[in-house]
């Protein structure tokens, strides 16, 4: 046994070192928490501003993506004012694979509508529409939330201006009493984040296949 000890020690050190070897990143993602600072966005039925909900979701999504071996940049990590142009400039300043803008939805004088929406810029290759459909499929399935549509929005500056694939996620309706409370729940935010990671995994594979064709 003694004569094997040096060999076993070297083998164990090799295995330990290999496990600590940095893995290649799956992709580079920018997560944008909508609104912020002097721009509160809409206000929830509970009195919480959209900017707060968006940031809570964005931080958890960023952490979940990093844990899944993505390189992630956030447009903001606290309550600061950012112009649409500043968000776009940050996204376009890096070689990223995907831009995700996080928001809360609302309808005036209607507190019955709830569910998810994914907005996209309608590019000629229809790449964003396909990615939006993948994202919605994962979110609605994992969260058991109503699918309120995958919608083209060519007028949205953060989607129109970014050179990478880009989506805007409407996490739910802050104008719906029950959904508003759910969107403030940390466990639900974490569940949402994990669904985003699963969708992004699928989307990155899709993008890589498209690039290789």
Automatic annotation (TrEMBL):
Domain of life: Bacteria
SUPFAM superfamilies from the UniProt entry: Zn-dependent exopeptidases
InterPro entries found in the cross-reference section: MurNAc-LAA_cat, N-acetylmuramoyl_amidase_3
Coiled-coil portions: none
Limits of the MurNAc-LAA domain: 88-201
Keyword line: Hydrolase
Any one GO molecular function term: N-acetylmuramoyl-L-alanine amidase activity
Gene Ontology biological-process annotations: peptidoglycan catabolic process
Family matches, as SMART domains: Ami_3
Gene3D superfamilies associated with the record: Zn-dependent exopeptidases
GO terms for cellular component: outer membrane-bounded periplasmic space
The protein, known as: N-acetylmuramoyl-L-alanine amidase
